[in-house]
């Protein structure tokens, strides 16, 4: 849940949702068949290694907490402060074998994003990134992010939506969730070319008996993926992973990401959108 938001009695903190938490049973949250013996990376080793390529250490920070320094490959392996990986919530088979195609697609995508000035562009060209295999690879990229968001939900101790598990198992869509490519001005200004994840936003029903909404995002540099889930479903949605050239939705700050309030793209992106619009 957000650490810093304007004073509002309707905004809840993590302690307000304690009664909704699911007791940990030590089982993998994805397959529900094997013990949870591994923790998913919050930030991929390939991303961290790329950021360290000039020999510099990395600085990790979290709202309201001290910063931590990660030095070299040994620092990534040891994860002394528990900042690189989520708590153990997946079995080795799911985290390493079943999801290997997801990791492969993400690494290809992340390398492209880190080397390309996409923030001023109207969209991302998955045909350029993945060539003829763009449809399956883009689905696997979305599943990488779905696994990431699932681990964040489990970290909060709350139930993972069934549609997210089905998507990881091979479904081509999630009828109650929407995933979009985004860029957020405040994130770009604060983190630049680094790696970041948003606060986890959740909403409950009026009686606070169950979670009804999840919204969260993860970024490579200035480009992120936003996940929004609603208990009652999302009938009209346009998933980024169903298109060869999806748009990048622009937001001012993380509160706008939570509210779903986009801003107009810059003049250059708008010009490119106009130039590339379908002709009659």
Describe the structure.
The chain has 280 residues and is α+β, with helices and mostly antiparallel strands. It has a domain at 100-280. Helices cover 33% and strands 16% of the residues. The chain is built from ten helices and nine strands. The strands form two sheets. Strands 3, 4, 5, 6, 7, 8 and 9 form a seven-stranded mixed β-sheet that branches. A hairpin with a 2-residue loop joins strand 6 and strand 7. It starts with 44 loop residues before the first helix and ends in a 5-residue tail after the last helix. 33% of the residues are buried. The model is unreliable at 1-9 and 271-280 (pLDDT under 50).
List keywords for this structure.
disordered C terminus; alpha+beta; disordered N terminus; 9 strands; 16% strand
- Which band does the percent of strand residues land in? 15-25%
Overall pLDDT: 84
Major beta sheet summary: 7 strands, mixed
Extract low-pLDDT stretches: 1-9, 271-280
- The count of strands amounts to 9
Helix content: 25-40%
Number of helical stretches of at least 4 residues: 10
N-to-C SSE string, H for helix and E for strand: HEEHHHHHHEHEEEEEHEH
Q: State the separation between the terminal residues, measured CA to CA.
A: 46 Å
Q: Give the C-alpha Rg.
A: 19 Å
Shape: globular
Main structural class: alpha+beta
